[in-house]
Design a protein that fits this description.
Subcellular location: Endoplasmic reticulum membrane; Microsome membrane
Protein name: Cytochrome b5
GO molecular function: heme binding; metal ion binding
Largest sheet: 4 strands, mixed
Helix content: 55-70%
InterPro entries: Cyt_B5-like_heme/steroid-bd, Cyt_B5-like_heme/steroid_sf, Cyt_B5_heme-BS, Cytochrome_b5
Radius of gyration: 25 Å
Number of strands: 4
Strand content: 5-15%
Bound molecules: protoporphyrin IX containing FE
Main location: endoplasmic reticulum
Amino acid sequence: MAEEAVVFTFEEIKQLTDNKRNLLVIHNGVYDVAEFLNEHPGGEEVLLEHAGKDATENFEDVGHSTDAREMMAKYKIGELAESDRKALEKEEKSRVADSSSNSDNSSSWKSWIIPIILGLVGTFILKSYLLKQ
Ligand code: HEM
């Protein structure tokens, strides 16, 4: 219990990770997965990739089981500092905004170029058909 009250900033998480510990953040909890690397069913590679970073998004994308979520508790060493949580939320929001505006751009581009091409092709086919008559 007392351990869970320890608060880390991203700065500290990064520093500790440099010193051969493997800390990562999932749902604002800080986990030291150094002992878990060899046991992780998803392999050590993915855990190392997220060392010193927030892994929430990818952790959720995998769709970890309830068992996995219970296992996590064993590796929890503290919480992410309040100040860094806000930065994280903003980052996530802007990432969502970025990806939605990107897809909007590409879909609006496709929404006019495809009908124009189809229209031109249709016109040529019709013209060559009528000229043959
Ligand atoms: C302390 C944190 C973690 C624990 C305790 C944990 C535990 C587990 C467990 C028990 C499984 C087996 C499948 C299941 O029961 O859901 C698994 C699979 C997996 N995990 Fe994790 N995991 C952790 C963090 C992560 C992170 C940060 C990633 C990053 C992407 C990750 C990626 C994967 C992948 C790719 C699989 C394989 C899924 C499959 O083969 O279908 N895990 N993990």
